[in-house]
Prior knowledge:
By secondary structure, the chain is α+β, with helices and mostly antiparallel strands. It has helices at 8-20, 56-66, 78-99, 102-132, 168-212, 253-261, 312-319, 329-334, and strands spanning 30-36, 39-47, 52-54, 153-157, 160-166, 239-243, 247-250, 270-276, 284-286, 291-294, 306-309, 325-327. It has eight helices and twelve strands. Strands 3-2-1-5-4 form a five-stranded antiparallel β-sheet. The chain has a four-stranded antiparallel β-sheet with strand order 7-6-8-9. The protein has a three-stranded antiparallel β-sheet with strand order 11-10-12. It is rod-shaped and about 125 Å long.
Amino acid sequence: MKNDxxxxxxxILLVVCGLALIPVIFVPLWxxxxxxxxxxxxxxxxxxxxxxxxxxxxxxxxxxxxxxxxLHTADFIEFTLLPxxxxxxxxxxxxxxxxxxxxxxxILFILFVSFGILxxxxxxxxxxxxxxxxxxxxxxxxxxxxxxxxxxGFKQLLNFGAYSIPDKGGWIFVSVGVILLFCFIMEWRxxxxxxxxxxxxxxxxxxxxxxxxxxxxxxxxxDNCYFCKMTVSDxxxxxxxxxxxxxxxxxxxxCLLSFLRSSMIEKEQVKxxxxxxxxxxxxxxxAQDAMMLKSDELRSPMGxxxxxxxxxxxxxxxxxKFPGNAVNWNELNRQ
Length: 335
């Protein structure tokens, strides 16, 4: 469906995001900086999607004195999986842009956000384990002390100040997430507007259909004549005017003609005129196709004294009882 397609500029943003994720595989995602008086130049741990880098050996030497485990790339399965996961998301961004399907955009957004949350939780869990599971035989033991680095921001660990912040790859990843959130919100709002528009259109169509298809059966004892306001008691002489937005019901041909000749309605508004078949089941028939009998003997409710028929045989049979003149709708409407 056309309405399920995302807009072209959204697709361009998705392509940009997909291509931007490719270099993330090769640059640092995160960095932990350590500052202390004995290391005025500072120490840095760089976390790539596939490895640890920076001053890893020096940091491992310091960690040994306080009982923390040493850090080795091979100990983390994440470094094996992460490049493939980032590559997968890069591919999925491009596929979503090419397909241009809104549902695929929603799926991409959910997966990307879920991965981001899971990755941050895994990073926190890793920091927690390394900062709390200490060797009880370490050279330096401070009762109750933990050495968990901050997930993001600054934290004082003994005489070291630890800063945990995204690096190049992390900022690219965050930027891609922000752009994806923007695309998701814009398409979500657009989808809601489209659905509202469809609902309104369908409702309008139903209203117009119900109002303009006509005719509607005249119910005696319930419906009132629009012109004389009397309750319809004899449907044999009833009539209707159908417009594009409303149906007017009458109990007599006299009321119908008076209404059409009045200033109550413009000629352009009239879509169809229906009259009741005097014979049979008294169904409504189009006035243009009806045969009319005008006879003072008919005694209709408001003195119009006219009856309509759907065929000549029916009218001829009634004329034997109620002699009168046969007329057609065009003749009546001119009078």
